[in-house]
Write a structure and sequence with these properties.
six-stranded mixed sheet; globular; five-stranded antiparallel sheet; alpha+beta; Fumarylacetoacetate hydrolase, domain 2; 16% helix
């Protein structure tokens, strides 16, 4: 019997299906600040409590692994010790809701939540990666089936090889400026003179290790986890048609990249292609969809992105917006000061941001 058990155990390990006997308490990770102190990396439990990871590691001595200095360090060393540190600290901390809990455990509402990654070196955003979003924005309905390639579409050598029978259009990325990032709870500012500001509620794929020309079937190995990004968009144009679309004006004004509030490690999101999406503006549902409705999946987008540019731990790929954006409505609806934007993805979390008017250049905008 002993020989059979050992044989079965070895087979599980060889097949990659070995699971430790101890169940891991689900957690998220984020970046926080308390009373103006230096930002710290925290472990989030139940979306309510935050364990200061460095302080907890020092107090509990639950592991000999060095605590990460910031989120990029946590991500880069997650599989080489930091995950085990987090698991040990969470176990040692016990019930975070109990009376007399350790000083290194805080309530989320009592501290400041910062962008979870300060700041990604590269942010790639997918342009029109949902069939229904393609349909609502189609300039000439019926000309080409939304989301599908026209007769002139071919492979892009070294970037995207079209497979036999694949009728979808090729993936498309643009860069989002790092300077546009703000945190959960911070204000999206309407730029001076711009009146056609739109919402796009998106899932952010957080890269876990240096990735260059990653094959599609290995892409998951390079994903650390998932967060949220609001791809705020200026639909007002640049006043001329020079060089076509101007993605800088369109996408990268200050405050146009709310991100967070936290990151969920991929082990707690079994299938990122089966997540419910809800976006509300002043409690009115504007986007109601599912990631299963996307044109290209997570693995394909990671592979395509890394065929263009090397991505590093903490870089983010925004996966694209479902349908329901304001510009496609009849009549169009755009963001206005005083409203509240709420982007939710099942299992990942909720990103909430008030909308505010432009701030005078002689005063400082809320970050």
């Amino acid at each position: 019997m002993k020989r059979l058990v050992l044989g079965a155990l070895a087979a599980c390990i060889a097949a990659g299906t070995f699971i430790t006997a101890q169940e891991v308490t689900p957690f998220k990770v984020g970046t926080f600040e308390r009373q103006g102190t230096r930002p710290f990396v925290g472990v989030v439990l139940r979306d309510t409590y935050v364990i200061d990871l460095a302080a907890a590691a020092a107090a509990t001595k639950a592991s000999n692994v060095q605590a990460p200095s910031d989120m990029k360090d946590l991500i880069a060393r997650y599989d080489s010790g930091v995950r085990s540190l987090i698991v040990a600290v969470v176990k040692a901390a016990g019930d975070p809701a109990r009376a007399g809990r350790p000083a290194y455990i805080h309530e989320v509402k009592a501290i400041k939540t910062l962008p979870p990654i300060m700041y990604p070196t590269t942010i790639l955003n997918a342009a029109v990666n949902y069939y229904a979003h393609a349909a609502e924005g189609q300039a000439a309905p019926g000309a080409v089936k939304p989301g599908y390639a026209d007769a002139k579409t071919v492979s892009a050598p070294g970037l995207w090889e079209r497979q036999p029978g694949d009728e979808r259009w090729n993936p498309y990325f643009f860069l989002k400026a790092q300077a546009a990032i703000i945190a959960n709870g911070e204000t999206i500012r309407i730029p001076p003179g711009r009146t056609r500001i739109d919402w796009e509620c998106e899932m952010g794929i957080v890269i876990g290790r240096t990735a260059n020309h990653v094959p599609i079937d290995r892409a998951r190995d390079y994903v650390f986890g998932y967060t949220l990004e609001m791809d705020v968009s200026d639909r007002g144009g640049r006043g001329d048609s020079r060089h076509g679309s101007d993605w800088l004006i369109h996408k990268s004004h200050d405050t146009f990249a709310p991100m967070g509030p936290f990151i969920v490690p991929k082990e707690f999101i079994p299938d990122p292609m089966k997540l419910k999406i809800t976006y509300t503006l002043d409690n009115q549902v504007m986007q109601d969809a599912n990631t299963s409705e996307a044109i290209h999946n997570v693995n394909e987008m990671v592979s395509f992105g890394t065929n263009i540019i090397t991505l590093r731990p903490g870089d983010v790929i925004a996966f694209g917006s479902p349908d329901g954006v304001g510009a496609a409505r009849k009549p169009p609806i755009f963001l206005k000061a005083g409203q509240t934007s709420v982007c939710t993805y099942e299992g990942i979390g909720t990103l909430t941001n008030p909308i505010g008017a432009a701030v005078s250049t002689t005063s400082s905008a809320s970050r």
